[in-house]
């Protein structure tokens, strides 16, 4: 058994196709198939269910692939640790961000990170939080920007900033006439929310439960921009994170933003990474850089 065979198994588990996995590994399909069979012989168990048009891992194969991901991640961390001993600010950083934060945060922080760490190659992944967490655990990401709380003893979360929400209401709506609101002002209101899987949906539902509001039945948006346009069209009201409404972002006509009085509903953002990461100290510095850039923006907003 060697690391190459483990990479083949992980690729096959991810792509569920011998041809695609072979292409991803830069080898021929017969070579991949032979190496997987060799691995099965060595382990003494069947790892793959082979069918004419699809490939599935057996239970033993799924367990082996999961362990292989962890082993490969540890090896990559070993290599990265060696590289970072030479220069901790040079190399590749794989960073995940969830969709209702990425387009509004990254333009503020990425240019500064590039200027501060010119030798750093920043590889960005935008996915829903549960996918980012799994990729973080598997070693496919070095760190991720996520909303707290995070319940995983293997992960370290460094709090960065608290982002308040604004109420977005259409012109003419009774709440749009207020300069400020309390959370209790949402009592019995119907809010437009995102579809399942978005952490912003869970945060908005928490506000709904606190305020006595409820979700608009029969509507679930796929993105923050869809929510914004639906409010502007007069469909209903929603909550928008502050970074998503700051300049230079232009709000559509027909949408009014109203600030909440303290204690305002908000979400807490953290930089999260594995406790075993060789980048621990450097990621702490990255987190401080992000917080230092964003906190003044939120205070001014």
Describe it for me?
It is a single chain. The protein starts with a helix and ends with a helix. The strands form three sheets. Strands 3, 4, 5, 6, 7, 10, 11 and 12 form an eight-stranded mixed β-sheet that branches. A two-stranded antiparallel sheet has the order 1-2. Strands 8-9 form a two-stranded parallel sheet. The protein has helices at 3-15, 18-24, 29-43, 59-86, 102-116, 129-138, 199-211, 224-232, 280-300, and strands at residues 48-50, 55-57, 91-97, 120-126, 143-147, 155-170, 180-181, 190-191, 214-215, 238-241, 255-260, 266-274. The chain is globular and about 70 Å long. With 301 residues, the protein is of the alpha/beta class.
CATH class of the largest domain: Alpha Beta
Q: Ranges with pLDDT <50 over ≥5 residues? A: none
State the share of residues found in helices, binned by percent. Answer: 40-55%
**Strand portion:** 15-25%
How are the elements arranged and paired?
Layout: H1 3-15, H2 18-24, H3 29-43, E1 48-50, E2 55-57, H4 59-86, E3 91-97, H5 102-116, E4 120-126, H6 129-138, E5 143-147, E6 155-170, E7 180-181, E8 190-191, H7 199-211, E9 214-215, H8 224-232, E10 238-241, E11 255-260, E12 266-274, H9 280-300
Parallel strand pairs: 3-4, 3-5, 7-11, 8-9
Antiparallel strand pairs: 1-2, 5-12, 6-10, 6-11, 6-12
Helix pairs in contact: 1-2, 1-4, 2-3, 5-9
